[in-house]
Amino acid sequence: MKKINLLITVLGIALLSSCEGFLDVKPSNSAAAETSITNANDAKVVMNGLMRKLASSSYYGRDFILYGDAKGGDFAIYSQGRGYDGLYTFNHSVSTGNMGSYWSAMYDVVLQCNNLILNIDKIEAAGNGSVALSQIKGQALTTRALAYFDLVRLYGKTYNMDKTSFGVPLVLTPLDASAQPTRASVEDVYTQILKDLNDADPILPKTKVSGFLNYYGNLAIKARVYLTMGRYADALTAAEAVMGTTLYSLYSNTNWITSWSVPFSSESIFELGIYSGEANLGTGSLGYYLLRRNKVTGALGWFMASNYFIARLNQDPTDIRKAIMDYDESSTTRFGSCMKYVGGHGMTGDKGVAAATNIKVIRLSEVYLMAAEAALNLPTPDKTKAANYLNAIRKRAPALPAATVATVTMSMIEDERSKELFTEGHRYFDMLRWNKSIEYNDDFIFPAVVITNREKIINRTFYKTILPIPQNEIDANPAIATQQNPGYVN
Question: In 3-state terms, the chain is what percent helix, strand and coil (to 5)?
């Protein structure tokens, strides 16, 4: 990548890569790419490629979800040196362990969205627009908003900590080769995220579009954003709009267990398709990173549940979410291995291949929990809604008493998010926005390893809670050399 690794885009038309219909879109800096999208079919090709980018190993296919869990206190590691343990140990510097692949992958998505939006705008300005083109533009705007939301949480301080601090560069049009974009503030990035989501809202399809974003996926992302910003009334409105549609329904307890072996099931508001011949990372897939060491060939035991998570899940011995867990390498009784992303204990994924298991990016369960949190944090808390929405998910643990107006608390909602969304990439970002201290299960590591890059307990004032701008980005774009995140030395 060149110049802040942002100039890799302007899209080219891709070649069909599998019978499932996903297409790989290869970026290009050629001017001809600006005219490569001439109709809805061309735009659909590009959108297929964008979803493939989201499902890559550097983004939702593996690394971004691992980041959100490995740092949040619900994961532990049993040994160092197996790979990606730097996420857990916070072994990040400007030049090494900087996880620059996040920056590259997410800006790749952003810039491809930019070119898709630009080309559709040109077609519409020429009087050749269509409903299909408008819907794809809405999907591109929503995808760009999601990528920026993820970027600003990786590289900028959380919104309710310091929204005036540096976020990430806002790039909304194709870049000139000499461009050196600088970092916008966290607040400005969130303003753009909401603008994209609001612009997309009226043009998105209100039907299910498996593997792609629709109107309700947009609303669910909006609820996430509002919750992170502390705009609880807006978060509740967005979440309730999703909950009010009949397109999606919560899993029953029985169906929750089997849902991980079913593609595009009833709770999936946004789910990325992973197919055996395409976007399937094999032993490098998210599912394999969570398996017990040597359970199958290629399973190295990268990450497992921490003692803290296991204790939380064991609050109710009959919690149905325990059914998706397996014992880890530490013993035959410690259930720290999660099998969501291999399709459950059958290990056939959701299409017959363990590693080819779809990534459920947004589920209805999360929306209910967002609504519960938002209702409880209103200026005048609505404890009835908070308890009811929480209980819709708390039923997974039938032996726990239901929340009531008198008993519902944020701690209950926090615990439920941990149990329900384990291995789905949320815990770390939740702990930061809640301004909670995070304790790591360092004593679980065997043989004993001293963690030198962080303390056992940290909070969001620790400078390594956000990533450094990678050195190669600074080398390519000297304009951001003075905008490095505090604490990191170039």
Answer: 45, 5, 45
d(CA 47, CA 252): 33
Structure tokens at 470: 């990678």
Contact 146, 157 (CB under 8 A): no
The beta-carbon contacts of 24-30 under 8 Å, at least 24 apart in sequence, are 24/49, 24/52, 25/49, 25/50, 25/52, 25/53, 25/112, 27/108, 27/111, 27/112, 29/177
Token representation of residue 201: 């809202």
Render pLDDT for 251-279 as a digit per residue (tens, 0 to 9): 999 999 999 999 999 999 999 999 988 77
> CB–CB of 293/301 below 8 Å?
yes
Q: Tell me phi and psi for residue 120, to 5 degrees.
A: -65, -40
Backbone angles phi, psi at 457, to 5 degrees: -120, 125
Residue 424 DSSP SS3: coil
Sign of the alpha-carbon torsion through 196, 202, 203, 204: positive
> Reduced to 3 states, what is the DSSP secondary structure of residue 431?
helix
Q: Is the peptide bond before 447 cis (omega within 30 degrees of 0)?
A: yes
Confidence class for position 296, pLDDT limits 50, 70, 90: very high
Amino acid at 205: P
The terminus-to-terminus CA distance of the chain in angstroms comes to 20
Contact 11, 34 (CB under 8 A): no
**One-letter amino acid of 197:** L
Q: How many DSSP H helices and E strands does the chain contain?
A: 17, 10
More confident residue, 27 or 435: 435
- Residue 169 bridge partners (DSSP): 183
| Orientation angle between helical segments 215-229 and 131-155, nearest 10 degrees | 30
Taking only the tens place, the pLDDT of each residue in 357-367 is 999 999 999 99
Between the alpha carbon of residue 129 and those of residues 1, 11, 46, 136, 277, the distances in Å are 33, 20, 17, 11, 34
Q: Which helix (H) or strand (E) is 168 found in, with range? A: strand 166-169
The pLDDT value recorded for residue 36 is 78
Instruction: State the Cα–Cα distance between residues 394 and 53, nearest whole angstrom.
Output: 34
Tokens of 187: 């607040």
Establish how many alpha carbons lie within 13 A of residue 116's alpha carbon, considering only the half-sphere containing its beta carbon: 32
Question: Can you tell me whether residue 79 is helix, strand or coil?
Answer: coil
Q: CB within 8 A of 203, min separation 6: which ones?
A: 134, 135, 137, 138
Are 438 and 418 contacting, i.e. CB atoms less than 8 angstroms apart? no
Please check the confidence at residue 30 and state whether its pLDDT lies above 50.
no
Q: How far apart are CA 148 and CA 447, in angstroms?
A: 39
